[in-house]
Backbone:
């Protein structure tokens, strides 16, 4: 195989037995370097861990690598365990971190860890997991970090060298193999020149009112019509297109708006029908209402893809797209995250995105993560990126900066969970606070921020001691329990200490676990509870009040997650054996959400199996997991298919 210069440079470093971080644009060909690590390790009889930020990417990598390396590949993601002793083991970063803090010895045969999308260190909610894994991973393992363009990649490399005391080389590639050409739709006109966009698209919007100071003049802005844009793409031969939308409902709404278009010739129509029906049969979707609803779109070369859909139906859409039978796909941003779905064109429905508490213009790094899907290597000479502009929402300056400025630096999000603290306490006792100086946060921050971080860690330790998770230099039974259940440790551990798990029926256990993991969407209606669900709500409410009281006293923020019983009736129905369409009537969550939360319940049940619960309780847990893990919830069946 002939490699690009940056790929060959990284491979030479790997062959010399040294760690390497690779920063390159989306679509530049970073996966080829990971494949080299896997092949080389197989030839040398050693093992590789491959970590990915989301399960969809883990699943895709499992399928891709399995087709190349057959039985040498396994996957471990909490709700899936296939070939867990394989030479190449794909897992989420959380699973890798848990393995490190619980028992490093399980990794002694693994010589490499590949961190895909390592810039996820910067993720507000989950970035700390990457950091913990990088700080605590065994010294005998080498690192291959793959990242989108990151300006402070050298800083990350120096930090890793300081933690592990061995070289971490840097390889940077700025050039995209397929250059991008930017277009703008504003007031229903299409511009390929930024100055013309500003001059014509913003005319009147940025000029002052006559006789007054600054401020926009009232103006009838023409709406950007989807039909205008899509007709342009079709006429110019710029399909297939990935159209990014920041709302699940809007993906379907836009597909409906486009339904009068037909992008396929008669031969393609027949091929897409046969392929769709075959895939639906293969994934047991022939009787699913959602698959029937999508079919008329697919027959015209249109599809949508979002987290509210059944995982198997999303996979059908992905396979159709890679077969080039879908010409326009409306999708949310997870489609951009490492999943190998390039197109000729990428369209942005709007230039703003919700960040935590409010909408603001997209970060440059997020923009290019998505824009980078435009232009298929060895197929297209260039990729096309269309930005749909509302001149009242985004200024020319902000738009220009988003496209042309250097991507944002990766910053630490270090924030140890209670479970990680407990596992580290077993190894280091009160010296555990000395771990903090090894963090990226310590490396990047000034003295005042460092002091705050140390105080937060000490306050969390105090919470654990005050609540009797730690006594002296030992973990109590409750502490050992909490060290095995990540994310929900205080709630589940208090219920364990109260003896609740030995008293629960199968249904009650399922309802409780669903309430522990569920996070209602904004505006979700609170259900009217009855029977045991009502009793469980009262018990969990008492527990969380007590936990929050102690956390508030210690000035911990954010507080431990509350329990929400919105899926109680759906879980009851599922455990009774009702079919999936029926249980959807018991809640207002999307079908994809229900599957995702039921799979999260399975992950919690598997973690509970590793705790000091009674054998009787563990037997109940195993039985419940087998009942829940069926039909659309069974993710292993999806992968084996």
Residues:
């Amino acid at each position: 195989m002939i490699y690009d210069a940056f790929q060959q440079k990284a491979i030479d470093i790997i062959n010399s037995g040294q760690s390497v971080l690779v920063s390159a644009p989306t679509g530049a060909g970073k996966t080829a370097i990971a494949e080299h690590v896997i092949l080389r390790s197989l030839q040398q009889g050693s093992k590789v861990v491959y970590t990915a930020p989301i399960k969809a990417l883990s699943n895709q990598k499992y399928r891709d690598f399995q087709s190349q390396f057959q039985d040498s590949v396994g996957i471990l993601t909490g709700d899936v365990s296939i070939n867990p002793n394989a030479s190449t083991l794909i897992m989420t970063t959380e699973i890798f971190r848990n393995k490190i803090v619980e028992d490093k010895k399980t990794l002694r045969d693994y010589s490499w860890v590949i961190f895909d999308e390592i810039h996820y260190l910067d993720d507000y909610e989950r970035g700390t997991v990457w950091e913990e894994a990088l700080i605590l991973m065994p010294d005998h393992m080498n690192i291959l970090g793959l990242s989108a363009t990151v300006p402070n990649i050298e800083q990350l490399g120096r930090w890793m060298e300081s933690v592990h005391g061995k070289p971490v080389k840097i390889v940077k590639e700025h050039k995209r193999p397929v250059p991008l050409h930017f277009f703008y739709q504003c007031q229903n006109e299409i511009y390929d020149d930024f100055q013309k966009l500003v001059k014509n698209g913003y005319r009147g919007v940025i000029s002052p009112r006559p006789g007054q100071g600054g401020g926009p003049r009232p103006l009838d802005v023409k709406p950007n019509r989807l039909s205008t844009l899509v007709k342009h793409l079709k006429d110019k031969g710029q399909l297939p297109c990935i159209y990014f939308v920041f709302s699940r409902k809007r993906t379907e709404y836009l597909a409906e708006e486009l339904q009068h278009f037909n992008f396929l010739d008669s031969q393609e129509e027949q091929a897409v029908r046969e392929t769709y029906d075959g895939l639906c049969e293969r994934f047991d979707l022939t009787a699913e209402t959602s698959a029937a609803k999508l079919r008329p779109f697919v027959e015209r070369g249109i599809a949508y893809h979002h987290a509210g859909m059944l995982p198997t139906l999303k996979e059908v859409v992905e396979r159709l797209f890679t077969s080039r039978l879908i010409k326009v796909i409306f999708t949310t941003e997870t489609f951009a995250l490492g999943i190998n779905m390039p197109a000729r064109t990428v369209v942005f429905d709007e230039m703003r995105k919700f960040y935590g508490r409010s909408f603001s213009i997209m970060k440059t790094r997020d923009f290019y993560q998505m824009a980078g899907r435009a232009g298929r290597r060895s197929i297209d000479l260039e990729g096309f990126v269309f930005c749909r502009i509302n001149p009242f929402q985004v200024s020319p300056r902000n738009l220009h900066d988003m496209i042309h400025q250097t991507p944002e630096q990766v910053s630490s999000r270090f924030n140890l969970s209670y479970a990680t603290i407990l596992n580290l306490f077993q190894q280091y006792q009160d010296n555990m606070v000395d771990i903090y100086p090894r963090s990226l946060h310590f490396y990047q921050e000034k003295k005042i921020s460092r002091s705050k971080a140390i105080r937060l860690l000490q306050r969390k330790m105090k919470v654990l001691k005050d609540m009797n998770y730690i006594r002296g230099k030992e973990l109590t039974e409750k502490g050992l329990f909490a060290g095995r259940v990540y994310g929900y440790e205080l709630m589940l551990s208090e219920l364990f200490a109260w003896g609740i798990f030995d008293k629960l029926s199968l249904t009650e256990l399922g309802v409780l676990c669903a309430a522990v993991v569920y996070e209602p969407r904004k505006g979700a209606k609170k259900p009217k509870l009855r029977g045991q669900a009502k009793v469980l709500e009262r018990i969990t409410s008492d527990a969380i009040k007590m936990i929050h009281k102690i956390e508030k006293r210690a000035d911990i923020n954010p507080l431990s997650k509350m329990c929400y019983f919105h899926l109680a009736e759906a879980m009851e129905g599922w455990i009774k054996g009702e079919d999936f369409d029926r249980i959807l009537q018991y809640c207002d969550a999307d079908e994809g959400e229900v599957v995702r939360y039921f799979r999260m319940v399975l992950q919690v049940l598997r973690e509970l199996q590793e705790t000091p619960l009674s054998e009787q309780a563990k037997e109940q847990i195993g039985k419940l997991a087998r009942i829940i893990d069926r039909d659309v919830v069974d993710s292993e069946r999806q992968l084996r298919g």
In short: Residues 207-214 have pLDDT under 50 and may be disordered. The CA atoms of residues 250 and 330 lie 9 Å apart. The chain is about 45% helix and 15% strand. Residues 5-172 form a domain with the Rossmann fold fold (CATH 3.40.50.300).
